[in-house]
Amino acid sequence: MNVIMARIGYGRVIEYAFTELEKYLKRIDPKSFIDARVYDTRDLSKENILWVGLDGSVEPSEDDRIKIEVKNGGGIITGSNPRSVLLAVYRFLFELGCRWVRPGEDGEVIPSLSLTRGELNLSLDEAPSQRHRGICIEGQVNYEHVRDLIEWIPRVGMNSYFVQFQTPSYFFKRWYNDQTDCEDIPVDPVDDDDVDHILLRLEEEISRRGLAYHAVGHSWTCEAFGVRGTEWRHHDEPLPEDFANALALRDGKRELWKYSVINTNLCYSNPSVRRHLVDAVLEYCRKHKSVDYLHFWLADGDNNHCECPECVKYRPSDYYIVLLNELDRALTEAGMSTKLVFLIYEDLLWAPEHFHLENPERFTLMFAPITRSYRRAFADFDPKEKLDVKPFIRNKLERPKSVGASVAYLERWQEHFGGDSFDFDYHLMWNHYTDPGYYYTARLLHLDMKNLHKIGLNGMISCQLNRAFLPTALPNYAMAKALWDKESDFEEVCREYYSAAFGEGWRDADLYLRKISELFDLAVATEEKDLCRFISNCKEAKALITSFTESHIIPFSETNPSWRYLEYHAEMCLAYADLAIAGAMHDEAKYEEETERFKALLLRLRPKTHHVFDPRVANRIYESYLHNLLKI
């Protein structure tokens, strides 16, 4: 087929969208001939041309909206902004049968078709249910891991990426500097300057796709005084005098909280301290004009705020508002329109009593319920239920554990701020490791995203391991689907994903992974206190894994990477079962033996699985969660 494609204009993101469409159409039908052209504007007199770009038919907006009107191979693929055009291109390709079942080349599922003009028909005009749809850097990563994830994000309809810290060394050093135990992955140490160069390359990848770029969050409280904050670690170097004097007063002393500059709050009632912070943000904004959402957070951790006579007059959230207003005034005076994201987290869960934001349009509220339960969804509690917020007692606060209690704190904030907001949640940071089949995790994540609007939030930036795709990417995929369409059906998402990922035998893969989640459900042991049933479940899981490996995984794994990853996953699950059984039987010697065997297995598989699985966190989580079985 002869396809005439025409790009409207020369914008960077539009150009990328155009080349993506051309590339995949050629892969779908290698025999097709594509004539690619560029025009300044759309010429309606030219028929049978497939136009890509902004033609004025969709009202311009920072919020995404896609429009596709294609008939007999001609028409328009457009959107409300350049990024939306790229999203529209991927949606058009999706309708042709393209799927991206995980980041990276081996996650591409591209149909082989003989295209005709009659097959290139689609009429669609959509806006996503949620504004913010993104992922935040976490875990142990290299450049390729993050690049592939940034590439994948718009392909599944998401629009944002968040890099924590001014220099995110913590995440990259854990990969490049810590591979000494794995001979098959070369050690290539990096320092902070190297990481800054990696970040510049990643910012290019974010920019060429027009993604909303979120940045920093952690480290303002030390970077403002010239002390580098690139990771959570003990700080052993002497502190500059102005920084030492700015630290929060705790128990009569101004010193680092738990030896960490990232975790230490400051004396926010002190105008000089606040001036340092404001100046640091201004300087950063001048140097980093590509940042769309600048996160301004206080220190990490809880119960570590200043107890000086001035600071105790108001809650930390009140002084936070004072700081945010000062930042807004300084940015406005400097002519900068950068959005500021403020954080509802830890001690800041308790809403302010005395101050309010003077310019709400500048700000986006970020709700981070890090201590919530991931056994229940936002939809599982009665919003009419009256849940009391615990009284604010400085540095003696109890964080909410339930979903309903967490939302109660959010509602108090919403009485003060009714502007833009999103969830910053941790479904794929820790708890997914206790759900080896990923079915429960995916279902909960999808349900939470469907119901964000019911608690007054407008999206999600998922604070998660950037390599959370083993056994599948279903949790991420389901999250993206529900953020785009809150009416999406989870079972339909499962059918769509599994059929694309596994092809022949996908129904069996679906049932297998659901059963793995059911049999390894730790709630049986930890909540129901039924160790006998849990041990029986683990033994049943081992039999299922062995049988399914022989009947399905081995036959399909030679030609399909999704099945091949399932083969590695099966090995892990067998070892996981032995580890869990030893813990549940209170056999400490056996448990230690199985722990070492499990670690050795993850190490052996690392070269084959590192694009989809983060073993460092896995080891820590298994040691923590499964070790608790010994105490039941």
If you had to describe this structure to a student in words, what would you say it looks like?
The chain has helices at residues 12-28, 82-95, 143-155, 169-176, 192-208, 220-223, 241-246, 271-287, 316-333, 403-414, 439-450, 474-484, 490-502, 506-519, 523-526, 531-557, 561-584, 588-609, 615-627, and strands spanning 2-8, 33-39, 49-52, 66-71, 74-79, 99-100, 108-109, 122-126, 132-136, 160-164, 212-217, 249-250, 253-254, 293-296, 339-344, 363-367, 421-425, 459-463. The protein is globular. The protein starts with a strand and ends in a 5-residue tail after the last helix. Helix content is 42%, strand content 13%. The chain contains 19 helices and 18 strands. The strands form 4 sheets. The chain has an 8-stranded parallel β-barrel. The protein has a 6-stranded mixed sheet with strand order 2-1-3-5-4-8, with helices on one face. The protein has a two-stranded antiparallel sheet with strand order 6-7. It is α/β, with parallel strands linked by helices. The longest helix has 27 residues, at 531-557. Among the domains are: 2-126, Chitobiase/beta-hexosaminidase domain 2-like (Chitobiase, domain 2); 132-431 and 459-466, TIM Barrel (Alpha-Beta Barrel), CATH 3.20.20. Helix 1 runs parallel beside helix 2 (82-95) and helix 18 runs antiparallel to helix 19 (615-627).
